[in-house]
Amino acid sequence: MDKEFLRLMENLDELVEYQDEKLEDDHLICECFCVSAGDIRQLCVDKVDLDLIQKEFGLGQSCGTCLKNKDSWINKIF
Fold first, then answer.
1. What pLDDT shows up at residue 61?
2. Is the pTM value of this prediction over 0.90?
3. Number of domains comprising the chain
C-alpha cells in the first residue's frame, strides 16, 4: 500500500476514536444553567431527549450556544 493511503487510514482511526469518546460527568453542556453531561445522563435513560432536557433544565433558553453546538456533544453523552 502506498504511504498516503496508510496515513489516511491512521487519520480515520484517530477520528473514530475521537468520536467514540464519552464526555465526563462534570463536562458543562450549558454554561448559562450549569447543565452537565452527568445531569443529562441522570435525566435521560439511554439517549438524549432534547425536548425533555429543555423542559427540565432550560437548555437553550438563555444564550442558546449549547443548542447551536449540540453536534459537538450530543453523541458523546451515552
1. 95
2. no
3. 1
